[in-house]
Amino acid sequence: MWLVRRSDPRPGAQSISVSEAAALRAAYEGSADSDQTESALALFRKARDGGLWLACGCRADEGVYPLSSPAYLTTAGTYYLRRLTGEARPNHAEGCLFRFERPQRGIGVSAPMRSAVVTAPSGLFSVLTPEYGSHVAGQPRSCSAAAKISPAPPRLARQLWRLMAMARLNRLGPVQRSPKPSIKLEFASLRETAERVDVYPGTALARVLATHPGDYHSKRLFARIRAAKKQWKEEAPLQGFLLLYAHDIKGKSLLFDGADPIEIEGELLRGAAGPPPARGPYLVLAVVGDHGALRGLAALRACAQPVYSGGQFVAVAGETERRVLKAINSARWSLARSRPALEISVEKPLFDIDTPDGPARPDFIVDVVDGETGEIRTRIVDVMDAEARGGLAAKSGAHAAIAHLGEAMTVDPSEIEDASRLARRVGDFLGRA
Prior knowledge:
By secondary structure, the chain is of the alpha+beta class. It is built from 10 helices and 19 strands. It is 25% helix and 22% strand. The longest helix is centred in the C-terminal third of the chain and has 20 residues, at 319-338. The N and C termini lie far apart (70 Å).
């Protein structure tokens, strides 16, 4: 195979090496080891960054060379070769492996997240690493091939969940003692949390973080990132972050009320895995770094986590889960009026919880405190949601593990169509002694 210019797609001197060709073939066959996977990914990045196509030699004896363009399928986290076909473009030979666009397992695709144990990242709030800072927009998950095939959610998503958990955005306190929901309060909690996490030793995340699109468009964030980098070691990656509330997403564009959109250069994950929910809003964490092709700083990758509402940034895995949380809230308010001694709080676990039967991560943990008797009851509300595969909705613990956390009820997606009836069922479950 050859790397060819789009303006002159004829095979020339820039042929790929025997080892690169073998790595690409192994990746397509699904038999590549970590080194071959890394080699194949490097070839894809080289072609994409250089605006090159790949010409296949499967029909070289006929003097024709089928062309393919390296592409990245964000929804599946997979690299593949898009066949360039048409009246003037030859197809691959019948027995050629590359006549199929998609590899058997995907190149760079993560394994299913359902079996993953999801833990909070520790240490520095960092996503980029020195060896691939300028190529991050073209990479799906992480810098090593081992990480690319890991079942764990990407680090960018886990860093977002880490912030949300530290800021206690995943917890709704009793309605009797909670302030009115407000986007201002949610971002105040996030900014306070960003002061307590370092992106580099001695440099708080808050110093290289922007929470308004205007700081990105005006390049004020860029200036702060470059100023902070002067105090870091040379090998430390140039990186900062955007933490934004987006009401919608279109393609790779983040859409805001009253501000210009922001285009993400590379991968834009929605809740880390699975199909997107029916609608926003989203809390978005984007990493800003040096993009060689742009010769400057840009939003390289982002994770857009669906949240319950603009005033309550509780993570949800999809529209079904959002509506179940609405039913829980409705039940909490109803019980607060009829039985004010009951104080009910809700937590959305963002990471796995250890139990004697292994890790578990139910959808919602509800604590009910009876002020009259002093009794504390823990209830679990779990959603059988077909739309949310992986990510926050992945159940890494079986029912036996979840049972250690409290009595559980399961909500079928069909129940959300009757919101009042679902709220009554949840209320009966939470109010029962």
